[in-house]
Amino acid sequence: MSEDPRRVGVIIVAAGSGVRLGRGMPKALVRCAGRTLLELSLDGVRASAVAGHIRVVVPPGDTELRAIIDAYPSGVTIAAVDGGSSRPESVRAGLAALPADVDIVLVHDAARALTPPHVFHSVVAAVRGGAAAVVPGIAVSDTIKVVDGNTVTATPDRATLRAVQTPQGFDAATLHAAHAAVRDHGSVTDDAMLVESLGTPVTLAPGDPLAFKVTTPLDLMLAEAIVLQARAQAQEDQ
Amino acid sequence: MSEDPRRVGVIIVAAGSGVRLGRGMPKALVRCAGRTLLELSLDGVRASAVAGHIRVVVPPGDTELRAIIDAYPSGVTIAAVDGGSSRPESVRAGLAALPADVDIVLVHDAARALTPPHVFHSVVAAVRGGAAAVVPGIAVSDTIKVVDGNTVTATPDRATLRAVQTPQGFDAATLHAAHAAVRDHGSVTDDAMLVESLGTPVTLAPGDPLAFKVTTPLDLMLAEAIVLQARAQAQEDQ
Question: Which residues of B touch A156 (CB under 8 A)?
């Protein structure tokens, strides 16, 4: 598989509604220490330098995210793509918009805006090393229980669980095949699930606590504290 | 079951080593905006006003946590208890130190230092309402995968999962029975698991994102931002 970033594409899913953040706007437009979550995630993709092509999936009808994307100095080919009515449809739209000669595809959530470059590097390296599908994951802090309504039905051994993050990385042919084969998307919450349902092995790579998803107001408070601290550190270092 | 707080005991588990925080001290001694995690959790228990008895399980040989506990103005009976070599043994030590006429026991992690009073109230109300065991839980943000080494073996439907928190609440007789019956504690990460292994139903109550466990340096950064913001708000309100 090529070492050439021009053969790597990133799909950034920025079609989330942001309901749980309660700001009345698409999540990727929410500002964190003055910068939108979309810009922060683009900064992460750019800093990683792994990809030659970025496609950002936005809510249909959006103009504000498109304006940010058009103005963003990514240094690579970048374009906005209209999303679909479900996450898999949105990813499929992004996939269709990548050049045909891309052989590694990363799927990344705009809400994981502070994902550090090493996570991108580990995921791409694992795909280059032969894995068809790679997910970054970290240990789970809380005990996780399976419930049926308000009754606990099981407690899986926490040592066997990982909280998975993005970017998730795929051999392009595998991701195309998974999206073509799977049509029932009822409970699909990540792209690796589509690959798993084909019976294709999915490999774990090291994630990072910084790759957390900004979902709640508390998550946003944490993201702001991190960005402000990094900015203060950068000024001190000058 | 009595409505009397004198019949409710809280065991605070403060025996954690804090390795992942990297401060070289027991986690409950780590300071967050000037106050130890132990004091912050005691503040939460006191604010909830649900319990007449607090027993704090500390690492054997500890003197610093004991000094904090001795000086703490809880308004109720409070004492430090030496922990054991595992979490269940520590809880058992706390349980043995509660008065015999306590009929509801809450088990709480000192590391969930910012747990709001409503979580205590919901858990106690559910036990009073007849539940033998109650865990507060919230929706899971990340997709959770089951792994075997670096290979993903399953992705449970995220909608059926809850991240569970503390305080966990128990009918005292049920918790005593569970601790007496279960001896193999290899993968026990919470007290409800002991009750589940008896076949006794465990009930879910509403948790709160604020009841997160301080495990990593990022968690501590978030806790500090929350405490400082609450303090600023309290000054504004004066």
Answer: 146, 156
Q: Does the predicted TM-score (pTM) go above 0.90?
A: yes
Measured CA to CA, the distance from residue B40 to residue B111 in angstroms comes to 9
Interface of A with B in 138-197 (CB under 8 A): 140-148, 150-152, 154-165, 187, 189-190, 192-193, 196
Written as six digits, the tokens of A80 are 């906005």
Chain B residues close to A150, C-beta within 8 Å? 203-205
In contact, B18 and B25? CB cutoff 8 Å: yes
Nearest CB among B156, B213, B226 relative to A221 is that of: B226
Domain A5-133+165-237 in CATH 3.90.180.10: no
Per-window interface: A 218-237 vs B, CB < 8 A:
218-219, 221-222, 224-226, 229
Residue with tokens 């649900």: B50
Q: Residue A222: its chain B contacts at CB < 8 A?
A: 218, 221-222, 225
E strand residue ranges, B60-150: 77-82, 104-109, 133-138, 143-148
Question: What size, in residues, is chain B?
Answer: 238
Instruction: Please answer whether residues A134 and A168 qualify as being in contact, where contact means their C-beta atoms are separated by less than 8 angstroms.
Output: yes
The answer, yes or no, to whether ipTM is higher than 0.90 is yes
Q: What are the tens digits of pLDDT across the range B170-198?
A: 999 999 999 998 776 667 888 999 999 99
Of B147, B159, B145, B140, nearest to B212 by C-alpha is: B140
Q: A6 pLDDT band (50/70/90 cuts)?
A: confident
- Provide the angle, in degrees to the nearest 10, between the axes of the packed helices B117-128 and B37-48: 50
Return the residue matching tokens 């993709």: A45
pLDDT score recorded for residue B203: 98
Residues of A in contact with B219 (CB under 8 A): 141
